[in-house]
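#struct-queue
[09:14] JT: dropping the first one here, sequence first, then the structure tokens:
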Amino acid sequence: MKLSVSCVRGPLFAFVLACVTALPATSYADSHGAAAPVGVEEGRTRFNRGVDLYKEGNFHGALAEFRAAFAAAPSYRIHYNLGQTLYQLQDYAGAVRALDQYLAEGRDKLDADRIKDVEGDLAKLRPRIAKITFVVNVPNPEVTVDDEPRGTLENQELFVSGGRHRIAVTAPGYQTENRALDIAGAQQLELKFDLKPISTAAAADSRPQPLARPLVVAKRRTPFYIGAMATLVLGAGTGISAILASRRQSDYGKALGVVDNARGIDEARRATRSTALVADVFGGATVLAAGLTLIAYALTSGTERVTTTAASAAPRRPNWVPVVGPSSVGARCTF
């Protein structure tokens, strides 16, 4: 190629670029006689800006300006500048397309030396590109290469530069299929794509999805805790009533030692019997509560499977467990 990074040399480079790509305002009108003056002026402004950016090494910016210049006032001459800029960006396939179009549209306006130079450039570039043949199960699929749309594949062929590429193929009503490939220059590849209808994916997505999943959790021990607390209270009542009954028994023994104390003996006897009866009732209730508590513990021990979801699972709350010992009473809390 005549224009490369190594050939950028101040005024000499500017002179060469001006000579090979000079685009006077009249050239737009000459190529398309009906071009509007506003379009011609914008095209000339953007073209000159693209030349400046190219000389500065901002090839992406230059490419955007050259394309905008062509859109404002199309001219076959701009294809040459596009080809040179795409070459600098290592988009060899794009450079070949631009230079081929330059010759196709302007061959009858170019001299033999210019045609020979461009054909020499094309001879250097063609070995750096690969041809991909697409075999797709739908007609005229749309192709994107490295996020750049390439339109529909009417002839099922596409040329790309050697290197790593992301290729996406889709069609209206079908899912997009993506591939990443390392492609060498001068290769001829055949890629097969079997696109799936979007309706198939929609049907798959519409299938009932499980809203809950089983979790293994510990069984609730609320009955056991209630029984334990009741046993604790009744046990305390039994102890208190037993102490009172013991005192009444002592009072009754003292009353028997008093002479002519029949009335006191009767009262002490009744008090002793009452407190003993209360102690017996508390004791029986304590035994019953203890038995029921043991049954509740046996029924609530272990784990069970429940259905819940992560979103609906309630946060864990403190778990208070009563603790009763021979000489102490308390509670244990777990989180």
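[09:21] JT: and here's the second one, same format:
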Amino acid sequence: MPDRSRLTPAIADVRRAVRTSFEFAGLKRGELVLIACSGGPDSLALAAAAAFEGARAGIRVGAVIVDHQMQAGSAQVALATKETLASLGISPVEIKTVEVATAGGPEAAARLARYSALDEAAAQLDASAVFLGHTLDDQAETVLLGLARGSGARSLNGMALHSGRYIRPLLGISRKTIENFCADSKLIPWLDPMNQDTRYTRVRVRKQILPTLERELGPGIADALVRTADQLREDDEVLTSLSEQAFQQIATMKSNAILLDLDGFKQLPLAIRHRVVARALDILDAPTFARVHILAVDELVDRWHGQKPLTLPGVRVERTGENIALKTTKTLKPGAC
């Protein structure tokens, strides 16, 4: 059954965050929410709090454990985690074993395999939502990584509280509070050795970069990064909405191309113009694109002198008469826009 030990500040904070997320998701009595649980401190604390709050609200709480098979003993860890979750009153508990590819690096490949398994489990079990255990510190790391990559406002937005069926109740909760929650609840989480391996970029950010910033610039860096992400997300939501309206006005869809009306495109503010190009590249399923590619498209508008078409990853871009044409060798799916 859910732990009913004494209420400490950490336990109160985590339970409150979960209760708020239940309300945010509009979960009703009898509905099922799944916790994506690795057995680590963050997801285990989330599961324990959800079990407690779910019992009070009449909401069914299940869990999915994804075994990535990326290290020895992962199957045993998954089974031990299943037992712990069952002792908390969580049911059903599913273990999904996945094969992690190599494309994009181990972290990206593992993430892709994990979300695919979570989507499959949610569909099979008819879950209304899937809760993820990302914390405030995870958010700060994500923002810092986006800043280092120069990926633009969308990357600096960090992770969204709500994205489709996925909800992240702990984005406002620090890792230290999570550790206190586990200690206060007498939970013994699994400590993933990969989270100590500085060969991984995110681990270096966690173990080296953020502590250095805290030491050199003063405490509160993680909170400041998260506040920045929140502010940028508000701005980006407005700009994204405006750029979508602009795209609908100036874009013409073809079977394997998108034509952007040159006169209309010229009139757009740069922030909107660049998002329109990014939207087109996304629809054309360009495998990768960065700011340098978007700026190269601008060259065909603002510095036109008859230059040759651009060859971007997976897409050819040229100025033809009154249009900027972005072409792909693929046939666009119906409704791609």
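[09:30] RK: nice, looked through the second one.
[09:31] RK: The longest strand covers residues 60-67.
[09:31] JT: good to know. The chain has two domains: 9-217, 254-327.
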